[in-house]
Amino acid sequence: MRDVAVIGIGIQRWGELWERSLRDLWVEAALNAINDAGVDHVDSMYVGCMTPGLFVGQEHLGSLLADYLGITPVPATRVESACASGGMAMRAGFIEVASGLSDIVLVSGVEKMTDVDGGGATYALATAADGDYEVYNGVTFPGLYAMMARDYMRRFGLTREELAAVPVKSHANGVHNPHAQFQGAIKLETVINSVMVADPLTLMDCSPITDGAAAAILCPLDLAAKFSKGRPVVKVAGMGAATDSIALHSRGDFSTLNSTVIAAKRAYDMAKVGPEDIDFAEVHDCFSIAEIIVSEDLGFFEKGKGGKAAAAGETAIGGKKPINTSGGLKSKGHPVGATGIGQIHELVTQLRGEAGKRQVEGAKRGLAQNMGGSGGSSVVHILEVK
Amino acid sequence: MSVPGYWREQPQRYRYEANRCKSCGKVFFPPRRVCEPGCDPANLEPCKLSQTGKVLTYTIIHIGPTQFADEAPYAMAICEMDGGGRITAQLVDCPFDKIEVGMPVRIEFRKIQQDGHAGILMYGYKVVPG
């Protein structure tokens, strides 16, 4: 297997982009990545997207997007694993370069969510849960994560204030991210007093509906130096993916995401590092409770201590283990299929030392954790400066 | 929802049909063809999900999906049924402040949703304090 590097990244400011179409958003991000890398062609491409059929009535994205990027007849396909679609597209591209099949691969993600109303978006997103045995009976995604939060709070004594510290921290980081949907700080009381969505989670515990795209260019590590333009070369040191039961009720433990535990172990093993060697991380904070549980399942904190760590500032920039320096899904936005590649964008930005006011000093190794549904799938990547 | 799609699930929604692995005793609802890799499918025998159980975790949904929007706020719980098998169901006929983890519940047959004003009525299970 060949070593793989990320040589280009592209994104735009995420948000409610009424005037932009799916293809328009995606092509902009892809061109940004191609220009950033300085490549004159790509051999193959993958696009992570959860459900363009339900959101905009369009499938067959591989051909559509290759066509609009002007790169037909390259092989192109969509990768789907609910909200982990972007991370899984990254994985597919990594495998293709590592195998030796292709040298220059475009990996990307996109979701155009605002063409449907709130009910339509809720319906589309709910297809990531068990349709016949969860959604049929009335559960929503905030409801599933609320049931995790209830279990976690009862067992580990997590307080409402500690839980609210997560979105407060994420928004504080998002202030410094020009690509974030929300670039404003929020207060603890704002989170606690905002509209109740699914008890105990309020609106400000939940990531938003977002339009956006992100892209990255991968190549063999041996070729990466010629595209570096004096910037640090970023190697994909580790990758791991795993699944779990799609229905939350089938899991043994509602306060652990086993797919994340296993995906992380696989990524750590490949990179030959442990959680203590990670300088910063982007994690899938679709809901505030998810960031706490994931920060423990990645091995950053002992089970039950993640909320206390967040409240104590340990996950803030300048803290012991900065998490979601980009603002995370909560502040940066969560265009579901694009999120996993958006995380890779932030990792590379930090590792190149180009993150401006949100820069983690001395960042040499970062981890991205992207997850589908209520944790039915997870994918973890570890990137490091070579 | 498509009529065949609704009709297909009736054995579970109307009669709580499940199955059980004779080797490990695990109860599957809905029934599965495979317990775990290497497990002989002949080890799976039909059984019925117990109609009594207890709440493992719960939430009060204040903003519901379109089909349930008029019912909000409503409670949902993950329940472990006696003898095995788990469900996610609405917890009804109980004030929200009386709901607690560990409380006994039982399954009742109830209307779950309807397809607009002219579409099919859809039934299934909810749980009530047991």
Classify the beta-strand content of chain B into a percent band.
Answer: 35-45%
What average pLDDT do the residues of chain A reach?
A: 98
Q: In DSSP terms, counting alpha (H) and pi (I) runs of 4 or more, how many helices of chain A?
A: 14
SS summary, helix count of chain B: 2
Give the arrangement of secondary structure elements.
The complex is a heterodimer of chains A (386) and B (130).
Chain A (H helix, E strand, L loop, with lengths): L3 E8 L10 H16 L6 E5 L3 H5 L4 H8 L7 E4 L5 H15 L5 E7 L6 H9 L14 H16 L3 H15 L13 H6 L2 E4 L1 E2 L9 E9 H4 L9 E10 L14 H14 L8 E3 L5 H10 L8 H6 L16 H5 L6 H13 L13 E8 L4 E9 L1
Parallel strand pairs in A: 2-3, 2-4, 9-10
Antiparallel strand pairs in A: 1-7, 1-8, 4-7, 5-6, 8-11, 10-11
Helix pairs in contact in A: 4-14, 7-11
Chain B lengths: L2 H6 L1 H6 L1 E5 L5 E2 L15 E5 L3 E10 L12 E8 L4 E6 L12 E11 L6 E9 L1
Antiparallel strand pairs in B: 1-2, 1-3, 4-5, 4-7, 5-6, 7-8
Question: How would you explain this protein's 3D organization?
Answer:
- Chain A has 14 helices and 11 strands.
- Chain A has helices at 22-37, 52-56, 61-68, 85-99, 118-126, 141-156, 160-174, 188-193, 221-224, 258-271, 288-297, 306-311, 328-332, 339-351; strands spanning 4-11, 44-48, 76-79, 105-111, 196-199, 201-202, 212-220, 234-243, 280-282, 365-372, 377-385.
- Chain A has a 9-stranded mixed sheet with strand order 3-2-4-7-1-8-11-10-9, sandwiched between helices. A two-stranded antiparallel sheet of chain A has the order 5-6.
- Chain B has helices at 3-8, 10-15; strands spanning 17-21, 27-28, 44-48, 52-61, 74-81, 86-91, 104-114, 121-129.
- The longest helix of chain B has 6 residues, at 3-8.
- Chain B is mainly β.
- Chain B has 2 helices and 8 strands.
- The chains are: A alpha/beta (386), B mainly beta (130).
- At the A-B interface, helix 5, helix 6 and strand 5 of A face strand 4, strand 5, strand 6 and strand 8 of B.
- Strand 5 (196-199) of chain A pairs antiparallel with strand 4 (52-61) of chain B, so a sheet runs across the interface.
